[in-house]
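Need tokens for this chain, all 288 residues.
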Amino acid sequence: MVDNKSIHAIVFTDLDGTLLDDRYDLAGAAYMCNELYARGVLTIPASSKTKAELSELKALFSYDAPLISENGAGIVWPENLQSALLELGETSDPDTTITPPMSYEQICEVLETIKHGQKFEFSGFSELSVEEVAAATGLDIHGAALAKQRLASEPIIWSDESVRLADFKAQLQAKGLHLVSGGRFHHVMHPTDKGVAARRLMQVIAATWGTKLTVLACGDSPNDKPMLEAAQACALFPQRDGSYIPCTHPFSIKAKSAGALPWLEAVNELLSKVLKPPRQADFPASHP
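Here are the structure tokens for all 288 residues:
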């Protein structure tokens, strides 16, 4: 359980390409998060990864962390925030996260209809074997199997012409879905994002703890942008080609590279920036 009495800052962070580099050092990442927690900084992973994938990192934490999974389509609530949800008159099953308007199976059915009807060329994770997902992601077989345990979004590998992507997005929108661009893949899901999920978490945390918190965010991809721009200060991490996503945040920094140590350095720099003080976060930061 998170000891809210000692927490003064929250960091929402992407994983792949941000807290994690290609070495995929979960133990190193968890160590940095645990060190920050000992200093009163709560790290909340916000990833395109599944709940099953995130559970491996969470198991290494010294605290019961909230998790944002599948680009904001799911939130895994820790025990003390589960109680807060009940007090607010809401319910949420910690084993199923958010219930999306459309199930994963329904999303895949829509994709199959659009794919064959419009002759688009792409492959979703549901169509790939564990071995094929491992080859596409760089994960081992165990990790690839966890990546296929999806609840609310479908990553796709786009192999069609880039000019057809706009038409594909329009077809999805007509079916109540949208396309999110991540570091390696496009993700099909219902209209939400990491920023929406982070705001939801902060709404419950603020109503529960009733204290003013500093809110930071770290990420590298377009799917991180709503979360980055709503925080009080944010760290941009380089994409695979070395470029940074466009960001107009007045309190942003550019990290040198992905990985646990560069990530910690970036968070420490952000913490020093917010003492100046920064603008107010768009996230609810205290009880109304």
